[in-house]
Amino acid sequence: FAPWISPHDNAEIVGDVWEPMSAAHFLGTDNLGRDLLSRMIYGARITLFIAVLATALSFSLGAILGFSAAVFGGWFDTILS
């Protein structure tokens, strides 16, 4: 979604060096004149992917182990408890 919601491209130089916050650049620009908001949006893609993947993996593993403990019971449930 980053290309659709970010105001500028990730590497596009859109202003002067170290411009402060303004209507054109909500978080200002960096040392090369790139928009900081756009760079944060593009950088968040990797973080969100890892977070969603870790959540899905832990949910799946927890559900499988929980259902197995409920169905088999006995020593399997004791080990997981």
Gyration radius from CA atoms, angstroms: 23 Å
N- to C-terminal distance: 41 Å
Q: Which structural class is indicated by helix and strand composition?
A: mainly alpha
Number of discrete helical segments = 3
* Number of structural domains: 1
The shape is rod-shaped
Overall pLDDT metric = 95
Compute the number of strand runs.
0
Largest sheet features: none
Walk me through what this model shows:
Helices cover 59% and strands 0% of the residues. The protein is an all-alpha fold and 81 residues long. The two termini are 41 Å apart. The protein has one domain. The mean pLDDT is 95. It is built from three helices and no strands.
Summarize the structure.
By secondary structure, this protein is mostly helical. The protein has one domain. Helix content is 59%, strand content 0%.
Features:
3 helices, 81 residues, single chain, mainly alpha
